Request: fold
Amino acid sequence: MKRSVGSKRKRVIPKTGLPPGSIVYTGEHNVEKVTIEIFDYDEAGLREVRPKNVEECFPFKETPTVTWMNVTGLHDVEVIEKLGVYFGLHPLLMEDIVSTNQRPKYDDFGAHLFIVLRMLHFNEESGEVSTEQVSLVVGENFVISFQEIEADPFEHIRDRLRTGKGRIRSMGADYLAYALIDAVVDYYFVVLEKLGDGIETLGEETVADPTPTTLNTIQSLKRELGFVRRSIWPLREVVGALQRGESSLIHESTGVYLRDVYDHTIQVVETVESYRDMVSGMFDTYLSSVSNRMNEVMKVLTIIATIFIPVTFIAGVYGMNFHFMPELSWPWAYPVVLLIMLAVGLGMVGYFRRKRWL
Amino acid sequence: MKRSVGSKRKRVIPKTGLPPGSIVYTGEHNVEKVTIEIFDYDEAGLREVRPKNVEECFPFKETPTVTWMNVTGLHDVEVIEKLGVYFGLHPLLMEDIVSTNQRPKYDDFGAHLFIVLRMLHFNEESGEVSTEQVSLVVGENFVISFQEIEADPFEHIRDRLRTGKGRIRSMGADYLAYALIDAVVDYYFVVLEKLGDGIETLGEETVADPTPTTLNTIQSLKRELGFVRRSIWPLREVVGALQRGESSLIHESTGVYLRDVYDHTIQVVETVESYRDMVSGMFDTYLSSVSNRMNEVMKVLTIIATIFIPVTFIAGVYGMNFHFMPELSWPWAYPVVLLIMLAVGLGMVGYFRRKRWL
Amino acid sequence: MKRSVGSKRKRVIPKTGLPPGSIVYTGEHNVEKVTIEIFDYDEAGLREVRPKNVEECFPFKETPTVTWMNVTGLHDVEVIEKLGVYFGLHPLLMEDIVSTNQRPKYDDFGAHLFIVLRMLHFNEESGEVSTEQVSLVVGENFVISFQEIEADPFEHIRDRLRTGKGRIRSMGADYLAYALIDAVVDYYFVVLEKLGDGIETLGEETVADPTPTTLNTIQSLKRELGFVRRSIWPLREVVGALQRGESSLIHESTGVYLRDVYDHTIQVVETVESYRDMVSGMFDTYLSSVSNRMNEVMKVLTIIATIFIPVTFIAGVYGMNFHFMPELSWPWAYPVVLLIMLAVGLGMVGYFRRKRWL
Amino acid sequence: MKRSVGSKRKRVIPKTGLPPGSIVYTGEHNVEKVTIEIFDYDEAGLREVRPKNVEECFPFKETPTVTWMNVTGLHDVEVIEKLGVYFGLHPLLMEDIVSTNQRPKYDDFGAHLFIVLRMLHFNEESGEVSTEQVSLVVGENFVISFQEIEADPFEHIRDRLRTGKGRIRSMGADYLAYALIDAVVDYYFVVLEKLGDGIETLGEETVADPTPTTLNTIQSLKRELGFVRRSIWPLREVVGALQRGESSLIHESTGVYLRDVYDHTIQVVETVESYRDMVSGMFDTYLSSVSNRMNEVMKVLTIIATIFIPVTFIAGVYGMNFHFMPELSWPWAYPVVLLIMLAVGLGMVGYFRRKRWL
Amino acid sequence: MKRSVGSKRKRVIPKTGLPPGSIVYTGEHNVEKVTIEIFDYDEAGLREVRPKNVEECFPFKETPTVTWMNVTGLHDVEVIEKLGVYFGLHPLLMEDIVSTNQRPKYDDFGAHLFIVLRMLHFNEESGEVSTEQVSLVVGENFVISFQEIEADPFEHIRDRLRTGKGRIRSMGADYLAYALIDAVVDYYFVVLEKLGDGIETLGEETVADPTPTTLNTIQSLKRELGFVRRSIWPLREVVGALQRGESSLIHESTGVYLRDVYDHTIQVVETVESYRDMVSGMFDTYLSSVSNRMNEVMKVLTIIATIFIPVTFIAGVYGMNFHFMPELSWPWAYPVVLLIMLAVGLGMVGYFRRKRWL
Reply:
């Protein structure tokens, strides 16, 4: 669960000096080739195509059926640009698709809506959470989704489209957009569940055996949660704006579904908040258990020292070499002194008992 | 008053990949069988029925009298579904009824209102607070309430319906809904009273005898209160929305009662806030009493050490074996040295007295 | 200035299970009998009556003159109920009058306004602040005030009514209501002044001689102020709502006076806030002075130990019994060693001087 | 820079029991006599008068030229009252003028506006900031300003009026009011500059040589800044309300100037906020430097103790009086033991070096 | 990365007593001479002029082409004034241009818009961030930009104007204004990147080797970030206001670009917030590592002392000079006592092992 400070810092884009609308991919090359999947469907049937080049996508713009084009891989800017130009997307919109560090946002371009989401991924090995940008362009009867890597959560939607389960095939492009957003939000719960496991383990460690490493983990978990929160928080507004139904592209019947996603989003945000509270509490526990340990160390030192310092003094007194020390020649002096020492020691122990230190 | 970190974490739903409106119960099976109680009443009389199967409920939809159907147990999804379909409930509404980790919310479906509440339960043994979801569907002349376990607070309402006490029998379904909400909110005070007892005990423990366990209890109580707060906070909006009378299902005469519930809700929230302040204060008291203890330990060590270290040194000096140490052969040297030691010790004690350490 | 944690906790009402509008007194019985004072006045004259039973109040409802009925003592619910029924008060309003733990609030019932205030009392002996509920029902030409105990602040208003000083007799019921609210708010300043005295004393104690008791007092003062703040804060909204003149019962000419009360309320809230800041500062001062004390204890220990441990070692060396220790037989060895010891001691003292520890 | 806790506490007014509109001066008597200055001007000329009694002011009410009456000293309530009655001021307004602990506020009385400002003064000797109330009554062609003591900032405006510099003489009463407000706000920067010097000095002291006195100064500076903030903060709203031009007494051409004052006010507030951040940072620095000192003390003790305790033990071993201790009679035993002691000591020093404690 | 407390304090303007609209430069003289660059362009061509005196700029006011006048250096107030008077700028606007400590702001003067931005500079040597004021006056077909020093970020815009790259030449003055704002915001990312490097280094230092200097750096970095935040935060509102398109000078087609800048501004603010969180976390880490060090020091002291104090006592016992101590003459007494001492020492070590201190 270690995340270097630097890795988060890298999220700042240094793409300065280019004219606006310059389509420059700012993410990492995660897939070898840009792939496009096309699902063209209506209630009657589904046509699934994997076009070899971008031009094969163009005819689907005209079909009366709903078309979902899922573009995976954003580094081949040319493909994005061709598609964008054909579908009449604004240059700034295309720039946003490939600038993969956008906050979740919602823009209404009239003929189509542009939605940016952030998908969370939990890296089991490092315990880190990373995010990937998923952009949706929602038109009258098409949805184009753009993502950097082949993400899992959409698999369920592919299944539902293929089997015709649920009402997805009988509804429009806005419902498909809803389904994609819902899939992303639902996946948050999976990631949160895993983060929660980490928090649980950490909570036990903090109480049982806190080390400076524990503190580091607490701090990085705090940052991790801050990062997740910042990725999810603006989503509330995005879904809220969609749900208010200001765009004619969102039909009224989809509104109730979007309200449902909205509720889920708030639930995600609240879960993150409660995790943050827990981690904050752990920090306090950590600090106070460090204090407690110090206390215990001091107690041991004090007990040993206060028992032995007085008796050592007594031994020192009878180690003096004065010629006239009558006790030295008394026959029972030695055992009596030993007994006095014992009494002093026991007295101290009794005092500590009374103070509840022992 | 111990609540494991994990138990709270489990509240995240991992129900991903299902089409929306899938009615899957996400709670625990708390009752053996789904039971339905029906109270069908008007000012003139009351008919109380316990139908054997869900179909027996259907005729009550048509009666001009007010009908309260109280469904206890949500695991038998089929029952919920049948009822829902017959009463024309939206699939998402039915999904929300059985997804038992919703925040309090209010949805207006036109023909009926949907209200989700959270009921608090205080487990006397563990000192934990758990919550149960109570959903209300309020129609023109019926209210259907759904709950996971058989809850107590509605008993008073059953009594009032049976005896005809108060104005409940002479008013409509909206007043019944108000009465149910009021019962849930009133029960919060009972749970808060019990939490308050725990806080009081803890407050005394923190001052009198703080241990690391005290800290754990403080932390978990803090989380507990955060949890309660999150369960209650959205209720304000819910009741506020109901009270604004935007739905024609809520009559104006009920508005004043809802305003009363609203005031109670704010009182609950403020009580929780003041409890949180108290628990925060306890944390500060705990930390500072740990500091004070350390201080006391250090003082004891310092007093003992600073009294005996100098006199032990004096003893050490006269324990040296130099051949030419004239004091050694003086007859009064030994008692004089003992007196000097005593003087040094008393001097130290006097110094500590002046410093107010003794 | 000690207030037990529990006493504040008792403010939660456990009145569950009763139908709404049940008039049950939830306070303590502070006065022996419910007493009613009636002031019936116009510019021309004043009639002051102390009716023996509640029925004697009824005729005043019809008089064209302004009538102030001041009801002291709320435990005799029957009296309240009779009065309420005759003056046409809503059952929930009557319930609120006797549920003496309401937050300040304002309700417009059309024919009359209902205002709940909280009056502060400072108990000189315990240093505790307690609150009492004062409810006002403001009609076209009457004001009924309800209070638990006979409060002082209204004495000034009685005087003004009797002597005809100021413009109170020449104005309507709304002005009387303003005057009563103003009296309550003005009395806050008296209580705050006394709390301020306590804070001042505590501030000096924290700097001069902090003990664990100081911390307890700081914490309870913090709670006390939080309690005062919660009692006063909602008053802002109440007076703000009155001043906006939404009710036709409040004449425009009274608006400027209510704005004045509003300003006073904000001043009270700000004073409480600044007290809270002071008490927070004291907590920090307390913690740091505990730290400083520990520091001083450690310094004394360190100075004594580091001066005597090395010289005791030297004495130990010459206390060894080796046969071949040439120094032992040197005639000047003893004084030379004593001088070395002195030099080591003085060197240490010099070191501490340089470090500014002495 | 010391301000006693009590002095701030005195700001609470205990003026209870008087009818509203009672004109009672609540400040201190700072000037011997109430003085009035009159500036009557238009673009053509200026007439400057110092009337001997308040009646001399009355004719200026009728002149078509702009009149500025600057009243210094508020203790002679009679003067204020006469002036107020002649100019038709509301009794509550007059009460506010002489109750010199008002927050900045703005009231529109139709025929005139009432503006309360707080002027800051920095006492060079005590380092304390005090405030004085400045009230403005702005009419169609007159401005009356009331202040407790003869303040400096208006000197610039007198100069500009006399010399006709700038556009002040060619504009109306609203511009004059703006100029007076601007002068008060500009003077805040002077006071802040001086507070800033104190903060700078304190910052250096905190790092170089923190003592408990430093903490007291930090705490009182914190309170001082809180006090300044509370005095300035409501001014934002006052100037904002003026600038929105809701009153016909404020001409549109003055709006742009008020917007400028508004910007300055925000700048003042931000400066105060940044000072508060600095002082907060100092508190943290103070605490951590106290910790660091303790650390250093402990290190010295530990180094001395851990070097000498083991070697003292060795000396103790050879000080034992057993008859059969073969080492005692070895000729090289004594120097060998001394070397061992040296080795132990040096070993310890090496250990501390490695630990970076030396 | 050291910034003295005082340097930030200097930002307060002491320009009091001057009439409003007095054009007095409050910054430092950073460039030798005021220089003006003129870019006059339309889609067809570009004319680049460097006029020798301000009068040469006047003809460009009338051209139908878009004109960008970039004024570098603000100390020669006369130049600004001449330009301002000719272009009909309000005196307060001109005052704001040369008062170089304005917050970002936006004013609509009807015929032109006035925008104040703050440009960040990162001083590589001192690690300090400084800001420079950039003011824009946006008219129908001209933009005048004012800056104190010759800033780099506009170089890209000059390039684009010269080469005709992008759509800048084909669009109006509002697009140019957008491009300038965008350049300033984009440059923030560069400065943040560098601040981020400093934070990363500091984060490692805090964990590995914290010293009091580390604390100073943390504190000054915190202040630095607070300063950056205050400089950027109001920009949100500025761009938001521009984007809402309330002015007819901003064409609708530019709105989408301004929305893009708005998104960037929010991203900048969020980055600053996340940096602040990191620095706060470092402070906590610092404090707790100071605590941990103290803990370790105490442990070493305790281990040494508790091992040697008991065995030194045993040595002291057999150093006593009593005549009757039978053990002294036993032949195996000495080695037995040594073994006992060893056992005590090992016992202590074992105890510490069990306590996990070793």
Summary: Chain B touches chain D through one residue (CB under 8 Å). Residues 252-317 of chain B form the longest helix (66 residues). DSSP finds eight helices and seven strands in chain B. The two ends of chain B are 39 Å apart (CA to CA).
